[in-house]
């Protein structure tokens, strides 16, 4: 959610443009760059000269900014850039970052939210403001409170802020430096010979040596040099800071979209997850028997797709006789906390940066629960916040719509459920069997020739105004994730419903123009769902059925006969169809599936 990139060194403007391009998946409402330069530019709607600093901004994707920046000869050794996901004010040029102070001597880019910005704004002259953002308040405060020392001014201003931030700041009071501050929003810094760099995303920074900045710390970047300070401005020996292993950037290759590539990678990603935990000893090292054998209750928390993976996880733990609840992180945080004994709280997050999930984790930790993170991103914030951590190993996921990461989160839950069974009953056979089964499912997904049927179904539904998805038990969980996937990239209204609940109200919306996807994979409850399907058919709703069972009602609109596999694996298997259908539908509607409107890959604000 928003991306920051700053660079000191030769060709800083080019480096920043490349940097924010790599971050574009985090937000793409507007973008901007601030350049330290003594040669003012011709001002226009996009360009504003400060005092020794010029900002250039544009609406929309970074390519729009690129057109105006790369058309000019811009030479500077210091630049900071930003790609925005709007939180305060519309995504227009004025609200884009970087923001200049009124005297033009400070420029700032920001990730996060300043919660008390309105209160702070009242203490500043209203004539100074050009935007509606919380960030501009900080720019004006830096000007107002400047005390002759840049770093101590930044510290003093930060102390007045409530909320979350990662800042990169340049100022003509102290040229050739970038100042960085962090509170609850991730930021990393790096340096090498003749350059230094700051970035909000571990996976998008390029640098020889990369270090994580902790909450409350400050960093000062110079050409080839980096200094880090604690919250009292005492310098920290950077050799004592956690160095970060660089993650390789992912290339699109021959694919049209990351989403397409990532769906294609699902089998290999599942295999990688399974391989990592194929030997029970690996999990025994991460979650030692002594500390986990007494666990009686599990609480699973996440947002969006990660929450949906947790819902499947819940059923898998319940199958093993373990009491389990799931919660949406943003809801859980603000409801009364019920004391729980012998409880493990599991937090699922692809990015490891989701503010709500991390907030819920901190709360559980405070209340004395053991916390385990399931994440895809090494060194992400959640890995430092949780007591224990399991990686999904899906490989980087760039498409905003989560696909392979979801499948790998499920794979981890399948394995974990059998691990807890092993801790309770010592049943190693069941654990090994689980590993084999997951490998089989990965193979089945790989060789399942479903592209044609998925594209045909996308053709069928892409003009629909409203779609429903129904199922019971695990089939309802399939419907939940499938419906989120479809709506987030097709923008078609789509709702998941427990099949048996439809008749309690929502069925009144079903008519001959309504498509209803029905998932029927669980033997025990199949007849009940078939009954609910009949109710939909009776109202002329168009059923698209996914099932391995013979269907008694021949009046369905489309039937996808899926192979017979062990029932518990259907969420892992069937979602692949729905990921593809969503992808094809988005394409038919002319939407970019990698950058759906109004969304961002990691949601680092509440
Ligand atoms: C998934 O397609 C969504 N983009 C979204 O729901 C996402 O899963 C959610 O924001 C949680 O993200 P996380 O896994 O990085 O915490």
Brief overview, please?
α7 packs parallel to α14, α10 (304-319) packs antiparallel against α17 and α14 (404-425) packs antiparallel against α15 (428-447). The longest helix has 22 residues, at 404-425.
Task: Give an overview of the whole structure.
By secondary structure, the chain is of the alpha/beta class. The chain has three domains: 3-240, Aminohydrolase, N-terminal nucleophile (Ntn) domain (Glutamine Phosphoribosylpyrophosphate, subunit 1, domain 1, 4-Layer Sandwich); 258-447, 3-Layer(aba) Sandwich (Rossmann fold), CATH 3.40.50; 451-588, Rossmann fold (3-Layer(aba) Sandwich), CATH 3.40.50. It contains 19 helices and 25 strands. The protein has an eight-stranded antiparallel β-sheet, covered by helices on one side. Strand 3 and strand 4 (53-59) form a beta hairpin. Helix 7 (266-276) runs parallel beside helix 14.
Q: How would you describe this structure in keywords?
A:
606 residues, alpha/beta, Glutamine Phosphoribosylpyrophosphate, subunit 1, domain 1, Rossmann fold, 3 domains, 8-stranded antiparallel beta sheet, 7-stranded antiparallel beta sheet, 19 helices, 25 strands, 35% helix, binds 2-deoxy-2-amino glucitol-6-phosphate
């Amino acid at each position: 959610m928003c991306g920051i990139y700053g660079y000191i060194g030769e060709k800083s403007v080019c480096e920043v443009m490349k940097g924010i391009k790599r971050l574009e998946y985090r937000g793409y409402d507007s973008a901007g760059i601030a350049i330290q330069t003594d040669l003012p530019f011709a001002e226009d709607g996009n360009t504003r000269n400060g005092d020794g600093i010029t900002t250039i901004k544009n609406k929309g994707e970074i390519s729009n900014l690129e057109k105006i920046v790369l058309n000019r000869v811009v030479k500077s050794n210091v630049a900071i850039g930003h790609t925005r996901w709007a939180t305060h004010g519309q995504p227009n040029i004025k609200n884009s970052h970087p923001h200049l102070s009124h005297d033009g001597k400070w420029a700032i880019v920001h990730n996060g939210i300043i919660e008390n910005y309105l209160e702070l704004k009242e203490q500043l002259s209203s004539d100074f403001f050009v935007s509606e953002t919380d960030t501009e308040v900080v720019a004006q405060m830096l000007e107002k409170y400047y005390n002759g020392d840049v770093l101590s001014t930044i510290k003093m201003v930060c102390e007045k802020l409530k909320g979350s931030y990662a800042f990169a700041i340049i100022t003509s009071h102290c040229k050739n430096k970038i100042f960085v501050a962090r509170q609850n929003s991730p930021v990393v810094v790096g340096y090498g010979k003749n350059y230094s760099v700051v970035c909000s995303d571990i996976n998008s920074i390029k640098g020889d040596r990369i270090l994580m900045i902790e909450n409350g710390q400050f960093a000062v970047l110079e050409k080839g040099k980096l200094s880090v300070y604690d919250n009292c401005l005492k310098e920290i020996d950077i050799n004592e800071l956690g160095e970060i292993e660089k993650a390789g950037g992912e290339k699109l290759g021959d694919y049209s979209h990351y989403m397409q590539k990532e769906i294609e990678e699902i089998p290999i990603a599942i295999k990688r997850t399974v391989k990592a935990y194929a030997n029970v000893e690996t999990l025994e090292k991460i979650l030692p028997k002594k500390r986990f054998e007494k666990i009686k209750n599990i609480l699973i928390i996440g947002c969006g797709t990660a929450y949906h993976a947790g819902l499947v996880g819940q059923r898998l733990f319940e199958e093993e006789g373990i009491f389990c609840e799931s919660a949406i992180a943003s809801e859980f945080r603000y409801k009364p906390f019920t004391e729980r004994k012998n409880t493990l709280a599991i937090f699922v997050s692809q990015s490891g940066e989701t503010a709500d999930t991390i907030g819920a984790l901190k709360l559980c930790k405070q209340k004395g629960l053991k916390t385990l993170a399931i994440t895809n991103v090494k060194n992400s914030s959640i890995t430092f916040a949780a007591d224990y951590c399991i990686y999904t190993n899906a490989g980087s996921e760039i498409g905003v719509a989560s696909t392979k990461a979801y499948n790998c989160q499920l794979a981890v839950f399948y394995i974990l459920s059998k691990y807890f069974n092993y801790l309770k009953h010592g049943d190693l056979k069941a654990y090994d069997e689980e590993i084999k089964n997951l490998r089989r499912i990965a193979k089945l997904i790989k060789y399942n020739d479903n592209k044609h049927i998925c594209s045909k179904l996308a053709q069928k539904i892409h003009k629909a105004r409203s779609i429903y998805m129904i199922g019971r038990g695990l089939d309802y969980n399939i419907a939940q994730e499938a419906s989120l996937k479809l709506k987030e990239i097709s923008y078609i209204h789509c709702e998941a419903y427990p099949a048996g609940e439809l008749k309690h109200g929502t069925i009144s919306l079903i008519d001959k123009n309504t498509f209803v996807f029905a998932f029927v994979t669980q033997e025990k409850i199949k007849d009940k769902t078939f009954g609910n399907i009949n109710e939909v058919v009776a109202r002329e709703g168009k059923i698209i059925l996914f099932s391995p069972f013979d269907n008694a009602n021949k009046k369905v609109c489309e039937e996808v006969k899926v192979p017979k596999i062990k029932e518990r694996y259907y969420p892992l298997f069937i979602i692949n169809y729905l990921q593809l259908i969503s992808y094809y539908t988005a394409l038919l509607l002319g939407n970019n599936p990698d950058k759906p409107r109004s969304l961002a890959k990691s949601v680092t604000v509440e």
